[in-house]
Amino acid sequence: MHLLLRQLLYEVSQHHVLIMGDFNYPDIDWETLAATDRASTDAKLFVECLMDNFYTQQVTQPTRGTAVLDLVITSEPDMADELLVVEGLGSSEHSMLL
Fold first, then answer.
1. Residues 40-62: what's their mean pLDDT?
2. Which domain holds residue 51?
């Protein structure tokens, strides 16, 4: 599945893009946009894809435990500003993004 996502991100990189979801990449440091040494090959390729296409990942606070798993990826940094991470809904282990 992640291969298809990377292909899609390359294909639409010349358009306005906003993609949100739970990407499950706990081994990516989103402040430095770098995969850690223990990151999977898929995670490293995902970071490379974002950098190659000048995408911005907007979520800066953990969304599950200490990890940033729920992402908002945009082709323009100002497309999604003032994101808030708030307590999860019901029994969800993930925080909500507003």
1. 95
2. 2-97
